[in-house]
Amino acid sequence: MLEQFKELAAAYCPESATLSRGSTVERRLSQLRDVFGDPAAVDLLLERDDPVLYRVMAIEPADGPGDLHLGLGILYPGKVGGEYFLTKGHLHTTREAAEVYIGLAGDGVMLLEDEAGGNVRMEPLGSGKLVYVPGHTAHRTINTGSEPLTYFGVYPANAGHDYGAIAERNFTHVVIEIDGQPTLRKRKDVFPNG
Ligand code: F6R
Ligand code: ZN
Prior knowledge:
Elements (H helix, E strand, L loop, with lengths): L1 H10 E2 L4 E2 L3 E6 L10 H8 L5 E7 L9 E8 L3 E2 L2 E2 L6 E2 L6 E7 L1 E8 L5 E7 L3 E4 L3 E7 L5 E8 L4 E2 L1 H6 L3 E6 L2 E6 H4 L4
Antiparallel strand pairs: 1-2, 3-4, 4-5, 5-14, 6-7, 8-15, 9-12, 9-14, 10-11, 10-13, 16-17
């Protein structure tokens, strides 16, 4: 972990919010078509362009017991069908695995929803903000500003990512702009068919 952190610190460029080495995962709008509440609005946008919504860069840990994984996320600003650009969202495969998000730049929120869907909340994530994601909690990042939102995610290396549960039922709530403010609303009230 110490070696990995040293490598990450050396590879991290705060000006460009990138790592000069390591792996990168890139997600485009077409890959999140059904994540948004208004897929028809996504299709309309896709006729012109298939923008990258976010990237996650990481230097992989040794994966030993007790190791931590550090990922650097960059989520671009934009909207489709009234929703801000967002990440797919997931639960950890090891459900009890928690995570800390460290906001580096930009403005956004995290949507947190416990596995049963009963406890839903929105927490600010942006420059200097910290968000603690407890275990058993689905989490999604949302860029509510006009600049790229960048953050570190720190979590147990053996946490794993379960996207299937979210793909099946999505989050029960959405974050939309009301009177200029990011506002939490029940999905079915905003997208009765979504
Ligand atoms: C890792 C984590 C973040 C996300 C990143 C992209 O556990 O929560 O690094 O992986 O914000 O979001 P997803 O993985 O939902 O596409
Ligand atoms: Zn996570």
